[in-house]
Write a structure and sequence with these properties.
Elements: E1 6-13, E2 18-24, E3 27-32, E4 40-43, E5 48-51, E6 53-58, H1 71-80, E7 83-88, H2 99-112, E8 116-119, H3 135-140, E9 147-148, H4 158-169, E10 174-177, E11 190-191, H5 194-199, E12 203-204, H6 206-223, E13 227-229, H7 235-246, E14 251-255, H8 257-261, H9 283-295, E15 300-301, H10 310-313, H11 330-339, H12 346-361, E16 378-388, E17 406-416, E18 419-423, E19 426-427
Parallel strand pairs: 1-4, 1-5, 6-7, 7-8, 9-10, 10-13, 11-12, 13-14, 14-15
Antiparallel strand pairs: 1-2, 2-3, 5-16, 16-17, 17-18, 18-19
Helix pairs in contact: 4-6, 6-7, 7-9
The structure holds zinc ion (ZN).
Zinc ion binds near residues 178, 231 and 277.
């Protein structure tokens, strides 16, 4: 019998213990200190092994916008960032608002093979906010959708939002809200502030986000359903979510890496790489978001990886698309803003990037402890690495706001279902038999 076992030797895990991890097939079969040699050995001295990361909020752009990203290129970027599972947002063309499209996305993810691609279903037909999409059919499809979002657009109609919460409750789904009151953000270009006034750009008030979150936590309470808030960006939003959790409302919340590091001051030169939805906010907001991650008010870090072609980004601020890429830099931004600052430890980071997003979505093979019997989805990072972001990327797009910024940590290996997708910092060519 061919021994296909691989032993990852002398790696540190989030608790700080140094162990060997033995993988066979797609499972971890043994973990512990100084195991007897089994199969191929990979020296992981000095590396930190974490549960493979899970992104709850990724725009892979396929079908329909393949000039910006494909499921294959986005999957490779995810693997480079240490992710073993991503959730593909529904704002494709056609919109993922029915079983056929979510099954297509799921199949393309399988064919790519770099990460687990879990489709997100739209809440409303064609993201129009008017009629509910067929949520149950998407749930019962091969893609087994549990997370529904009109992301990019807000489900702003209160009755539609109520119905969506009621509907997903029946099968244990969750509505992930892009909280943006459209009436308060007409033509909005950046955070509403004195800087926006100076720059002559239409402001995007915090209350446009906070009013929707306040309404939706009350709706979730009223209906007894589960709500997730995408990309929380303001101190006020944090306060509302904290209040809702204290009250026992079933709400979870995410923050993006960029909202943990970047502020509205970057907009000063009108460089559209910093144009994003929701907008970069004030330093006080950044401080509040980091504190909310540390105290548990915010449950997960999600990238909102939003690739756009140069045509849509290298233009005047007013014409540029909203969004920035972020899969390959996510853990480095998280380490730089949260670990290096002493706000959280690696156990908490593993919850934020793996355990909690997997739990929200109900993934079975991701977000699980590194222990014998669990799936071999593992990310190895060099937490001592320090480097300036070069901008080199597996993504098809290059709208990267971190180029030139020094960040901590580097992904060395990503192991997806027992297979190296990234080895020694390089993407592996997978041969799909
Ligand atoms: Zn969004």
């Amino acid at each position: 019998m061919v021994d296909n076992r691989v032993t990852f030797r002398n790696t540190t895990i989030s608790s700080g213990d140094v162990v060997d991890i033995v993988v066979s097939g797609n499972s971890i079969i043994e973990i512990g200190p100084e195991l007897v040699s089994k199969g191929t050995e990979i020296d992981c001295s000095g590396l930190l092994a974490l549960q493979g990361f899970v992104d709850l909020h990724t725009h892979l752009r396929e079908p329909g916008f393949e000039q910006s990203e494909t499921i294959l290129t986005g999957s490779k970027a995810a693997a480079m960032g240490g992710f073993t599972a991503v959730h593909a947002m529904a704002n494709t063309s056609p919109v993922a608002d029915n079983a056929a499209v979510v099954e297509q996305v799921f199949a393309l993810g399988e064919a790519a093979g770099y990460v687990y691609v879990q489709p997100v279903g739209a809440v409303t037909k064609n993201l129009e906010g008017k009629a509910l999409a067929d949520l149950l059919k998407m749930n019962q499809s091969r893609a087994q959708v549990t997370v529904f979002s009109d992301d990019g657009k807000c489900v702003s109609d209160s009755l539609i939002m109520r119905r969506a919460l009621e509907y997903v409750k029946a099968f244990g789904g969750v509505v992930a809200q892009h909280a943006q009151d459209p009436a308060l953000t007409i033509d909005a270009q950046m955070n509403e502030s004195t800087l926006a006034f100076e720059l002559g750009l239409t402001g995007w008030p915090s209350v446009a986000e906070e009013a929707i979150i306040a309404r939706d936590v009350l709706l979730a309470e009223h209906v007894g359903s589960r709500l997730h808030i995408c990309h929380v960006s303001t101190a006020g939003s944090v306060e509302i979510i904290r209040w809702a959790k204290e009250r026992g409302i079933n709400v979870t919340a995410e923050v993006t890496p960029h909202h943990l590091l970047l502020t509205e001051d970057l907009v000063k030169d009108y460089n559209p790489v910093y144009k994003v939805n929701p907008p970069l906010r004030s330093n006080a907001d950044v401080v509040a978001l980091r504190a909310a991650v540390a105290d548990g008010t915010i449950d997960i870090i999600a990238t909102d990886h939003a690739p756009h072609t140069a045509d849509n980004k290298d233009c005047e601020w007013g014409q540029a698309a909203f969004g920035m890429i972020g899969l390959e830099t996510a853990v480095s931004v998280a380490q730089t803003t949260l670990i290096d600052t002493g706000l959280i430890d690696w156990v908490r980071l593993e919850q934020l990037l793996s355990t909690n997003p997997a739990k929200i979505s109900g993934l079975q093979r991701h977000g699980r402890a590194l222990q014998a019997g669990n799936a071999a989805n593992i990310t190895f990072i060099d937490s001592k690495a320090q480097s300036k972001v070069s901008g080199t990327t597996q993504s098809k797009s290059s709208n990267n706001p971190y180029v030139g910024i020094e960040l901590s940590g580097a992904v060395v290996h990503t192991v997806f279902e027992g297979i190296f997708t990234v080895k020694d910092g390089r993407i592996q060519e997978l041969t799909n038999a």
